[in-house]
Write a structure and sequence with these properties.
Helix content: 25-40%
Low-confidence stretches: none
Radius of gyration: 25 Å
Mean pLDDT: 91
Strand content: 15-25%
Order of helices and strands: EEHHEHEEEH
Number of domains: 2
Distance between the termini: 44 Å
Length: about 150
């Protein structure tokens, strides 16, 4: 079985790419093997780093990357919902538009999902009902995302 060696930074995060790969078949003794045989071949500077070992046959994705993908999926779905409301309401704009949840004078100081100018975030049009708090606005958006077909 191949093992990937990753540097662990002082902040606790793991490097994206492995520093080295080695072969070792005993999963229970891999750390001892790494310390005795593999680490000693690193340069003196690198030997003092902290490392983590991952078997090559498991996901190498870092936990923070998984969270970012889930967040990106949510934003994509919200963007799809908002773009459908833009088309449905025939919103016209001279500039590229983006969608967002705002609390501003343009929404009578209520929370509302809106079409905004991309570069300036200036209000173009309201796309949702107005809400008293952001939780209600997010619940409305969650329902819209669930209704996507």
């Amino acid at each position: 079985m191949n093992w990937n060696v990753y540097k662990v930074f002082k902040n606790g995060k793991r490097a994206k790419a492995p520093l080295a790969t080695f072969e070792y078949n005993d999963e229970s003794g891999v750390n001892e093997y790494f310390e005795a045989k593999v680490r000693k071949n690193f340069s003196e500077k690198i030997r003092d780093w902290n490392f983590t070992l991952l078997p090559e046959n498991v996901s190498q994705e870092r936990p923070e990357e998984k969270a970012n993908k889930q967040e990106e999926d949510v934003f994509k779905k919200q963007g799809l919902v908002l773009s459908r409301f833009v088309k449905k309401n025939h919103v016209k704009t001279k500039h590229k538009s983006v969608g967002g949840l705002i609390f501003a004078k343009a929404t009578d100081w209520k929370w509302q999902w809106c079409a905004l100018e991309g570069a300036t975030n200036n209000y173009i049009a309201g796309l949702s009902p107005r809400f008293d708090n952001p939780t209600e606005a997010h619940q409305w958006m969650d329902k819209q995302v669930q209704n996507l077909t």
